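User: quick one, fold this
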Amino acid sequence: MADSGAPQETTALLGGDKNQTDDGVRGDKIRPNVSSSVTARASYRNSWHALRDLDDDVANEPNKERPGMPAKSYSVNADGTASYLSPLEMGRHELYEMVPFAAVFGMQKKERSLSQAFASFAGDLDAMEADQLEFKKSRTHLSDAELEKRRSHASLLLLDELEFDAVMVTSPLIIAVAMASMLQFLLGYNIGVMNAPASVVFPGHSTGSWAIAVAAFAVGGPFGAMMAGKLADSRGRRGALLIDTWIFLLGGLLQTLAIDMYSIIIARFIIGFGSGFASVLVPIYLGELAPPNLRGMFGTLTQFAMVIGILVSDFFAFPFATEEKWRYLFSITPITAALLLLFSPFLLESPRWLLGRDRSSRKARYIIKILRGLRYDHEVETEVSHFVSASQNQHCDGSCENDTVNSGVAFTEMLMTPKVRTLLISCLILQMGQQLCGINAVFYYSTSFFEGIIDNPLLGTTIVGAVNVVATYVALLLMDSCGRRTLILWSSGGMFMCCVVIVLSLLGYFQNIVALLAVNVYVSFFEIGLGPIPWLIVAEMFDAKYVTTAMAACSQLNWVCNFVVGFVFPYLNEYLGPYSFVPFAMVLALTFIFAALKLPETQGTTPEELMDQLVRKNSSVVYHNMNIEDAHNNPIDLEWKLAMEQLKQEDEAAMESGSYNYGFKPIEGVQPPASGSDWQSGMGH
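Assistant:
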C-alpha cells in the first residue's frame, strides 16, 4: 500500500485466500465466530465488501472532519449514490427491508436473528478496517485474538443498540396497540359468544337456524377480509379502523336488539364482516406503526387479545346466559365499539400510508417523531428513508393505492414461479388443516357437546377457554426452540390421538371426565402448532414482498373452511353422535402425513444464514469508516470532550508559562463599581 498520494480503495475478502495480502489486506485474519456455519462462511468468502482506506491526510477524505473527531460512516451503492448512515442506522435500514410490514404472532425469533446477523456482519467489517489501519501505521497486522476481540466487541455493541427499539415504547404507540388489539378482542369474543346461549336465545329454534346463525359469522369474514385491503388503501389505515369499529357497533346493536333468529343471522353476518376486516387490517396497521423488532411482539399481543376474548365470553355466560339476560351477553360488542369510537382521537394514521401518498408529508413526519420519541429533524428524516426504502422493497410502488393491484400481480407471479408456488400450496394446505381439524367446533359448540358428559357444560367450556390462553403462552415459548415442521407434526399427531380418545369416551370405553380432559389436551395441541404456525410460516417462508399477498390468500381460504365447520358440526353431532370427531381425525391424519413428507422447515433460518443473505444482498456496496465504537458515541458528547481537553491543555500551558489566572486578577473588560455606596444602593434595589 502506498503511503503517499490519494487514498486508495481496497477490496477486502472476508475470510478469503490467505495469500491475498496485497496492500495490507489480509483475508485470513477475519475469523468466523464460534456459531458461524461452514456454509454461511463459504458464501461469505466469495462475496466482497470494499472499505475505504483512511489516509493520514484528512484533507484527502471526501467528508473531512475536525481533528480528533471520528470520520462519518457512509456507503456507496453500485449506481454511485451515497448513503450517510451510521452502522446502527444501516442495521435498522436492513431490518426495515427484511421484516414484513405485518404484526405476526411468534415472529420475534426472526427479528432477533436478523439483528444478530447484521451485528456480526458489521462487526466483521469493523475488524477488517481496524486491521487495515494497523497495517497502514505499523506495517503489521492485528493478531487473531485482537481481531476476534474487536469483532466481538463491535458486534455486541451494535446488537445492544439494535435491540433498544424493543424496550423503547412511546405512549402514542401503546395507545394505538391497545385500540387495535380491542378489535381482535371483539373477534375472539364473537367466536365464543354463541357457545353458551344456544338453548336460551329464542327457545324452540331449529338446529339448522342456529347452525346458520353461528356459521353466518364465517360467511361475513371473507367479505370483510376482501374489503379491508381496499378501504385501507383508499381511506387510510386509521379511517379503515374507524369504519370497522362502526361495523362492530352496528352488528352488535342489531344482535342485542334482535327480534327473531333472522335478526341474529343478519347481525352475525355483519359482525363476521367486521371480524374478517379486523383480521387483515390490524396486523398491517400495527406492522406499519411499530419498529421492525417490535412487530412480532405486537402480533403476539393481538393473538392473546383474541384468545382472551373467547375466555371473557365464557365468563360472561355464567350470569347472562339465561332467557332473561342473554341480550346483556351480546351487548358487550356494541359497548366496546362505542368506547373505541370515544377514544378515536388518540388513534394515529399509519406513516407508511401517508408517505406512500406524499413522500414530503409533514403529518407523516410528525407521527414518526412522536411514535419513535425522536427529538431532531435529521433523525426523523432517517426514519422516513427507512419507511420509503422498505415500502419500495416490499412492492409498494410509490403509492399505497397501488397495493391492491400489486397484490393481484404478486399472486400471479407467485403461481408462475415453481418454488414459490410450492410454498404457497403448502401454506394453503395448512390453513385448511387448521380449520377442518374441528377446533372451531369446540369454540362454537362445546357447551352443547358437553351436555350429558359433565354436570355443568358451561364450566367445561370455560375450562377449555382458560386452557386455550395458557396454551398460547406455551406456544410462544416453544416457537423459539422448536422447528415449525416439528410443531405441526406434534400438534396434528397429538390432536389425532385426542380425537380417538374423545370418540372412545363417548362410546363408553372411558369415563366422561376423560372426554373433558381429551378436549382440553386437544385445544392445547392446537395452540402449539396448527393454531399459530400456518400464519407464522407465511412470514418466514416468503420474501417480504410476497407476505401480504400470501396472507390475504390464506385468510380467504381460512374463513371458507371456518364456515364449513361452523355450519356442518351440528349435523355431525346430531347424525354421527359419538363418531362426530371422526371426520376431524381423518383431516388431522392427512395433515400429519403432508407435514412429514412435504412441508419444508422454516425455523432453521439462523443468524449465520441470514448474514450470508446480507452479504449477497450488499455485495456491490462499498462501506467507508465502519468504526462502530466511535459511531456509538454521541457526536455532542465528543464535541464536549474535545472542548474540555482543549481547555485543559490551555490551562496547563498557562500554568507552565506563569500566566494562569487563579482567580485573583480582575476579569478583563469588567469595570469595578465606582464606590461602595453605589454597590450597596444597587443591592438595595
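User: anything notable?
Assistant: Residues 249 and 335 are 8 Å apart (CA to CA).
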